[in-house]
Amino acid sequence: MAKKLAMPRIGGAMDQTQLENLARTGMDALAAGDAAKALPAFLAIADAGRATGRLWSMIADAAEQLGNHAVLDRALDMQLAETPGDILALIRKGDAHARTGDDRAAVGWYQHALSRAAQMDQIDPALARRVEAAQAAANAAASRFEAHLHAQVADAANGRAVPARFAESLAILTGRQPVQLQQPTSFYYPGLPQIAFYDPAAFAWAKRLEDAYDDVRAELEAVLADAHGIAPYVQADPSRPNRGHALLNDARWSAFHFFQDGVPLAENAARCPKTMALLNTMPLPHIAGRSPMALFSILQPKTHIPPHWGMLNTRLICHLPLIVPDKCRLRVGNYERPVEAGKVLLFDDSIEHEAWNESDEVRVILLFEVWRPELDDAERTMLKTLFEAVSLYPSSAA
Is 0.85 surpassed by the pTM of this model? Predict the structure, then answer.
């Protein structure tokens, strides 16, 4: 056990010469690696009421070398009172709590130190090593905390499956996943639930859609054989600024549209009569100048649709996968799903989402939008009016 050094008491006032001699003695001793000689000299200055933030830092240096935790803790408190952003002092406070097994407190100090260090352009090599050690200690503490939580949850579950949204909350708490919320790029409707994937079984029309798989796929194959009417999914609008989409005007993600600005494309519709008849039984929004929106979405091999958000949170996007090789998947928020032929996927595209076709073959889905089920008839009517008013402006004011 390290010997604890008592703080010496100096009787009477100390003149400047004595202070300077003590400071020189302490600094020379510390530079020579003699912390046992340096610490009493520094403490004598502190006892005389002449300590500065720099002196408390040197006291902390000496006390840490000697393992004198009582003096170290006091020095750190005094140092941080004067220089609250000192990175090394913050790390040492984290170390102090780690020694007592208080991981949660330790991580708080470490994270504050790491945040401060990340803001610096350059760090002294010795401090950089302490920062690396603090990061490792914080990671280890976080892992212990996460293991503890999972163990407690497993005991409570008693062999039962943990609900998906509870598992997500735990992953967010432990920093494994971010908070994923609706962030539509054009219009946000408040009060709607934050649900990434909806269960298709809750919608009667989804079964009807899956049952029509063979008919829709047959019409798709005829479209692919001809290829007329297929164009890049993301196309530049000359009346709007270029937002720099990674697949802008890129045929690797293409589409065969059934509607344009809410109006059926007669030629395309005529080529896929069964698909159009099926779409007419779905709860599609009908908004002049905007909806319905439905298409065959064609993703070429080795293509990734990068993370993005949809324009509105008043709709859901429905996928009926038609041609699906292996290694096709879809992520919405913190949830990832495999894409399986004939199995409907229904999701909120105002939550960040992305898709992959990592195979060597093309992937094609029938994609369309539907009203969110939480919106009642009155809300749908008002939203239709609002969206149409947006589309009409400014021509309606002429």
Answer: no
